[in-house]
Each structure stands twice: as structure tokens, then as C-alpha cells.
């Protein structure tokens, strides 16, 4: 069975493994620890509770930009372990995170995705995100990012 819950201290090791198998420029464990400390409600993990010890199968983390008049959620990262992909877990995790952002008063959600990451692009589109801009040389290796956004006001 799959359960989605806020991150806990014992999750970091497994989470870092998923991160390193998912990205060429993974977030270090220290950054995860910092994010878990500063925005614990917006750092969710999906766990497989079939065995006695819970296996982490994925995570999603967001922060909230409060500088503008309205609050905007920002998806910092999401990944599902390879053997669990394409089974709807990423959609469940991101939908839950979007609900958390909505409950905190966000009127929209934004994110960046590498132009070459077609899988993530389709994934976000299926969840209602639309491409709003291209950011040139956004990543350290100079790849462009697509900026995608979801309007939450339409759904209020
Ligand atoms: C992107 C990611 C989180 C999707 O998670 P997931 O659990 O596999 O996604 P879901 O099973 O919920 O898929 C939902 C939809 O996304 C799209 N999608 C997901 N994987 C896909 C693939 N391999 N090819 C094409 N479309 C895909 C499909 O539209 C899918 O709906 P469908 O299965 O009904 O066709 C996962 O592929 C991942 O962790 N990738 C590596 C890390 C990454 O790129 N993160 C995003 C960084 S911006």
C-alpha cells in the first residue's frame, strides 16, 4: 500500500538514493535537510508500506514565494524511483502537494523543467500545467528551462 506523508528524519538516506538515480545534477542531502527544516509541510514523501520497514518510492518539495501580492507555490523538485514510475504515484504526490499549497492560500504554482525532459513535460501537462516561458541557459550546464504554471484561482 502507498501512503503519502510529510518527510521524516529517517527518510533522507533513501531519498538521496532516488535523487542520485534521477538527476544528473542532484540536490545534496544537506539541501534536503534544510528544506525539511524550513518547509516541513511542503516536503512530501510517498512510501510503500507493504513491508515492515517503509520504502520511500518518491518525493516532492515546494516553497512559497510571498514577495508578490498573491502567494505563488514553486515546485522545487519531484522524483519517483525508477522501478515505481508510470504507476500514477507521481501524479498522486504532486496533486497532494498542490492541495497543500492551495490550503496555504497560493493562487498559482510554477516550476522549471529542462527542455530535454519530455517525460516531465508530459507529466506536468497532464496535471494541468501550461508552458508560459522559456528561460535561456537556466541550468549550470547552460540548458534552457521551460517555465510551467498552474492557475489555482480557476479551481477555487
Ligand atoms: C516525472 C516523474 C516524476 C513522473 O512520475 P510517474 O509516477 O512516473 O508519473 P505518473 O505515473 O503519475 O504519470 C502521469 C502522466 O505523466 C506522463 N508520463 C509519465 N511517465 C511518462 C513516460 N515515461 N513517457 C511519457 N509520458 C509519461 C503520462 O502522461 C502519464 O499519464 P499516463 O500514464 O496516463 O499516460 C518521473 O518520471 C520521474 O521521477 N522522473 C525523473 C525525475 C524528473 O524528471 N523529475 C521532474 C523534474 S522537473
Please, could you describe this protein's structure?
The structure is a single chain. With 156 residues, this protein is α+β, with helices and mostly antiparallel strands. The protein is built from 4 helices and 7 strands. It has helices at residues 12-22, 29-38, 89-103, 118-126; strands at 2-6, 43-48, 55-65, 71-80, 106-114, 130-135, 145-151. It has a 7-stranded mixed beta sheet, with helices on both faces. A hairpin with a 6-residue loop joins strand 2 (43-48) and strand 3 (55-65). The longest helix has 15 residues, at 89-103. The radius of gyration is 15 Å and the shape is globular. The mean pLDDT is 95. The chain binds coenzyme A. Coenzyme A binds at residues 22, 78-80, 85-91, 113, 117, 119-120, 122-123, 126.
What is the CATH third-level topology name?
A: Aminopeptidase
Instruction: Please compute the radius of gyration using only Cα atoms.
Output: 15 Å
Supply the CATH superfamily name: Gcn5-related N-acetyltransferase (GNAT)
Strand order of the largest sheet: 1-2-3-4-5-7-6
CATH class: Alpha Beta
Helical stretch tally: 4
Total count of domains: 1
Topology as H/E string?
EHHEEEHEHEE
Tell me the major beta sheet: 7 strands, mixed
The pLDDT mean sits at: 95
Associated small molecules: coenzyme A
Q: Shape, please?
A: globular
Uncertain parts: none
Distance between the termini: 31 Å
CATH architecture: 3-Layer(aba) Sandwich
Number of strands: 7
What does the secondary structure layout of this molecule look like, with pairings?
Elements: E1 2-6, H1 12-22, H2 29-38, E2 43-48, E3 55-65, E4 71-80, H3 89-103, E5 106-114, H4 118-126, E6 130-135, E7 145-151
Parallel strand pairs: 4-5
Antiparallel strand pairs: 1-2, 2-3, 3-4, 5-7, 6-7
Bound molecules: coenzyme A (COA).
Amino acid at each position: 500500500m502507498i501512503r503519502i506523508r510529510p518527510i521524516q528524519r529517517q527518510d533522507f538516506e533513501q531519498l538521496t538514493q532516488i535523487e542520485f538515480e534521477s538527476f544528473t545534477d542532484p540536490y545534496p542531502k544537506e539541501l534536503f535537510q534544510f528544506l525539511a527544516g524550513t518547509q516541513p509541510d511542503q516536503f512530501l514523501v510517498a512510501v510503500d508500506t507493504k513491508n515492515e520497514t517503509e520504502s520511500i518510492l518518491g518525493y516532492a518539495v515546494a516553497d512559497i514565494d510571498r514577495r508578490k501580492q498573491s502567494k505563488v507555490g514553486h515546485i522545487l523538485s519531484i522524483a519517483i524511483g525508477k522501478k515505481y514510475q508510470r504507476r500514477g504515484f507521481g501524479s498522486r504526490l504532486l496533486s497532494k502537494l498542490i492541495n497543500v499549497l492551495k490550503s496555504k492560500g497560493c493562487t498559482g504554482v510554477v516550476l522549471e523543467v529542462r527542455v530535454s525532459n519530455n517525460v516531465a513535460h508530459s507529466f506536468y501537462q497532464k496535471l494541468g500545467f501550461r508552458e508560459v516561458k522559456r528561460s535561456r541557459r537556466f541550468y549550470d550546464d547552460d540548458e534552457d528551462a521551460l517555465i510551467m504554471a498552474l492557475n489555482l484561482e480557476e479551481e477555487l
